Amino acid sequence: MDNVDILMCLKKELDLLTEQNDFLIREKDSLLLEVSNYEKRIDKLSKKYKELEKENYPIKLAILEEEHKKLQKRCEQKQLIIDKNIAFEILDYLSEFKSLTKTAEEFRCSPEELYYCIPDWDKSNDRLYGLIDYDIYKNKLEGRWGELDNLEEINNYKKRTPEDDELKLILADYSSGNFGLYQLADKYNLIIINLFRLLKEQKLINKESDANGYNDFYKEYIGEYSYNKYNINTNLKLIDMFYNNIKS
What we know:
69% of the residues lie in helices and 0% in strands. It is built from 12 helices and no strands.
């Protein structure tokens, strides 16, 4: 091989090395850019995490922990029924006495869990609907929000503006702190949104969540199944519902 050929080979190798080097440089630049992007994302996520940890994270964690406790309790209650193998006996007893409370006492189990189990066992809600204390547990577990579904069907008396003497009694009972909001509404035969608007019109509250005992009210409204003490909706707009749908 003469010198020219050698030079040509060396040039080709050099060109190839140069090309490879250029490729590596481009790859390095690309990787550096990617690393930089990741660093920016990590920095952004780190700041976000600190923000969440400072503000939202404890609340979200508390909500999840509360839900976990509820589920764990239900699992324990259900396991008790399973361990005793008493489903058929429970159903027979229910058919005779028509009471969740009495049946739960007889079999030393949770009436709330029986409420959930019966439709599964029967593949129907008929037996549940026929119990004398069905409404009690329905309201307790599923809440009373459904009472507001068909406002036009509710007796007008519940939507009334009370006379002065009755109104004074309502306000006195409210101020005493001896009644829950639903207790008070039921005592005077008022729909709950009417009670809230009366309290607002008497300048005792600006919105329903200002009312004394709102948290307990919300638990009754939403039901124990969905209630979480760390996640209470304070913007139900129930007073607006009254004015928009009832008061002319």
